[in-house]
Design goal:
This protein is of the alpha+beta class. It contains seven helices and seven strands, in the order H-H-E-H-H-E-H-E-H-E-E-E-E-H.
Length: 185
């Protein structure tokens, strides 16, 4: 239980779990998302107290549940983070990404989080979803000063192409006018 020492070990289960969570990535030597007895550095009694499903490994969720005996997790602040970083932070808190929606935003870069629900620091049930609004960037690209929405080298290429096309059509028009006029001579 919360604050109760592991039998014969002295430290409480929640304290041990909190310490392991802080070092989870460093201790997970094979990067499989779980800790073995050897990777955890715990005594057999401590490990057994945390291994609630008795499968011989400790998952991040088992440690989060042990560190949070009330079954609640604090929602991390993911506003401004990239989508990938936000998902990692949410999963690390014992929660899961909820629904995601897209929205244009002039200040938040594309593929970064504009807002979240529930708000940061709220305590919600473990494994609950955190809904995200993800930026698609500005709705209209920035005008680069040329009256179009492109960079200047593209502008010069476009101008050259337009001169050629209009020049070709002008020659075709003059030729057709000449033929039309020749018909009446």
């Amino acid at each position: 239980g919360e604050g109760e020492p592991v039998e014969g070990e002295g430290e409480s289960v929640d304290t041990i779990a909190e310490e392991l969570l802080e070092e989870f990535e460093a201790r997970d030597g094979d990067n499989d998302g779980s800790l073995t007895l050897e990777e955890s550095g715990l005594t057999t009694g401590q490990f057994s107290a945390l291994d609630t499903d008795s499968n011989g490994s400790l998952s991040r969720n088992e440690l989060i549940a042990a560190a949070s005996p009330d079954g609640l997790a604090a929602v991390p602040n993911v506003v401004g983070l990239s989508r990938e970083a936000a998902h990692t932070a949410i999963l690390s808190a014992g929660l899961k990404p909820g629904s995601g929606s897209l929205a244009f935003d002039d200040t938040v870069p594309e593929d970064h989080i504009i807002s979240q629900s529930p708000a940061a620091e709220m305590r919600i049930a473990l494994n609950s979803g955190v809904d995200l609004v993800i930026s698609e960037g500005p709705e209209y690209p920035e005008d680069k000063g040329c009256g179009c929405f492109c960079n200047n080298s593209e502008t010069e290429d476009t101008k050259a192409m337009l001169r050629k096309v209009f020049g070709d059509w002008l020659l075709i028009g003059i030729a057709m006018l000449g033929l039309y006029c020749w018909k009446f001579v």
